[in-house]
Amino acid sequence: MNDQPQKELAIKAAGLVKKFGEERAVDGVDLAVQRGTVYGFLGPNGAGKTTTIRMLATLLSPDGGSATVLGYDLATEADKVRSHVSLTGQFASVDEDLTGLENLILIGRLMGYTRKEARDRGTELLHAFGLEDAARRQVKKYSGGMRRRIDIAASIVVTPDLLFLDEPTTGLDPRSRNQVWSIVRTLVSTGTTVLLTTQYLEEADQLADRIAVIDRGRIIAEGTSGELKASLGTGSLQVRLLHPEDRPRAEQLLAEKLNTSIILETDPSALSAQVSDTTQASTALSALTKANIEVTDFSLGQPSLDEVFLQLTGKPAEEEEAVK
Amino acid sequence: MTVSPENQKLRPEMETDTEGAREEALRRAISGGARPAKPNGIATSFTFGWRALLKIKYIPEQLIDATIFPIMFLLMFTYLFGGALAGSTGDYLQFLLPGILVQTIVTLTMYTGVELNNDITKGIFDRFRSLPIWHPSVLVGALMVDGVRYTMASAIMIILGLILGFRPEGGILGMVAAVLLLQVFAFSLSWIWTTLGMIMRSEKSLMGVSMMVMFPLTFISNVFVDPETMPSWLQGFVEINPISLVVTAVRGLMHGTVTFAEISWVLVAAVILTAVFAPLTMYLYRNKN
Ligand SMILES: Nc1ncnc2c1ncn2[C@@H]1O[C@H](COP(=O)(O)OP(=O)(O)OP(=O)(O)O)[C@@H](O)[C@H]1O
Ligand SMILES: [Mg+2]
């Protein structure tokens, strides 16, 4: 059957470029996304996440490079691509003047359901997403979390083979975020491929099978969350000292024990370092105690996106923005 | 009701039960979106028309322009200019009504561009563009509902005109034909506004530009006065102004004096406008950044 090529990769892109005037918003992106997996696009504001997704969803035509989506060529078979993918944009992608149910009926009808089928499908989705009470309320009166869910519901009225989710949880509280995560997990368990963008490492870590770190239109790292972490250290050990004058000694000691460069924070009594495992961190801490350096506070955290950038580019993300 | 210990123990189980049920519902709902056959362009146009009707339901203020404007315009111009221009308001009304009907409907077409521009500035536009549908239906559906508004406005205006003493020689048939011809022209003219709606960055700038086009076109025409009284260089413009062509045909149909050529000119103008601006709109629609 001609559905055969779909078996391999959901997305295959080579050298995608998009220019806005002089600016290269996307600057040579290569991608290989396996079917039935979640792929995370991690990057700061302006990295080119939305632009890449919009190209892959046929909303923008690339200025360079090529891609196949579900086996269909982006440039020549855009209609076929549109039939099988769905996009939940970064900003509300439903009609705010209409109710939740009307929005879902609208999409259902446009996809080819009869009036009754569209209504039934809409009701079913609203129920599943915990929005049944808001079915007859205009979307503009929804809370941020409800809005995100109706956005996603509208994208899966007809179950897509590939779903693009652009920053699905930005601005949501932890509870709403968990609801969105569980929707994504369920979706993937039924066979849909998901490409999502996020600014949060934790989200990519929780959801994505593979992650691409994107900055200034380029992919600067790619791999499973484990691979990325291994290259970055499990996280950063943050230490605050009782006496700021101890800091030079502590720095030296930690550098010896951890065998990595130590970051001196703006707080004169604080310093931090990348560590690859918890044993290493506790060895380092006990070494400080043995040397009579009093520690008031310490924490071992996942690397933040900033630290990822520091590690990958040698520069903090904001600094790069400023240079530009 | 008193809660027995047994009941309390049951609670958590019930909760996990509903929890499990919800999860099951979620799974079923998510995988339950079977792909139906692709609908045709007529069906999707009607669906977009349904959306436009819902918008009127939620924002009925939208209809103010289609109801109050015609009344205001007709009363204002009849009584303001009637005496001065035609000697009596009654005589002037016979001349003015067809013209001002055209002006009103043509002005209403501008709102089509505004609606589209609003959609673009919101995320819904991307959603529509990513659907596997016949894409002109997004606009055709909206234009169909605009037709309903034009019909409403025309009816209000003609009825008020009849009350004020408008006596068309062409009778009912002539009036219906006039309104129909006007609708055809309005549909074709709308594509100019959708083109502008695609290009302009905000509703404000869109309205500004639309007004700049509309004002000279409707006023430097034969809507209000007979061009005979104008300097000859101005007459030249009035004669080729498409609005004048429409007014001449609509006036002719209403008063039963229309010629085949007059109707043909309007249809030619409509075909040209649509042939140029509909594809241009769709080109911009496809290539919107
Ligand atoms: N339509 C456009 N016209 C001009 N420049 C644009 C346009 N869209 C995006 N850009 C620019 O391209 C760059 C990448 O933008 P993009 O929206 O893809 O970033 P992003 O990673 O999605 O950021 P965010 O996290 O803020 O959503 C930015 O510098 C942005 O200013
Ligand atoms: Mg974005």
TrEMBL record, chain A:
It holds the Pfam family ABC_tran. One of its GO terms (cellular component) is plasma membrane. Gene3D superfamilies: P-loop containing nucleotide triphosphate hydrolases (3.40.50.300). Residues 11-241 form the ABC transporter domain. SUPFAM superfamilies: P-loop containing nucleoside triphosphate hydrolases. It is found in: Cell membrane. It comes from the Bacteria. The keyword Transmembrane does not apply. GO terms for biological process: daunorubicin transport; doxorubicin transport. This is ABC-2 type transport system ATP-binding protein. It comes from Alkalicoccus daliensis.
UniProtKB/TrEMBL annotation, chain B:
It is found in: Cell membrane; Membrane. The keyword Protein transport does not apply. It is a multi-pass membrane protein. Residues 1-22 are annotated as: Disordered. PROSITE patterns: ABC_TM2. Residues 61-288 form the ABC transmembrane type-2 domain. This is Transport permease protein. Keywords: Cell membrane, Membrane, Transmembrane, Transmembrane helix, Transport. GO terms for cellular component: ATP-binding cassette (ABC) transporter complex. It comes from Alkalicoccus daliensis. The chain crosses the membrane at residues 63-86, 92-112, 133-166, 172-193, 205-225, 263-285. The lineage of its organism: Bacteria, Bacillati, Bacillota, Bacilli, Bacillales. InterPro entries: ABC2_TM, ABC2_TM_bact-type, ABC_2_transport, Nod_factor_ABC_transporter. Belongs to the ABC-2 integral membrane protein family. Its main location: membrane. Residues 8-22 have a biased composition (Basic and acidic residues). One of its GO terms (molecular function) is ABC-type transporter activity.
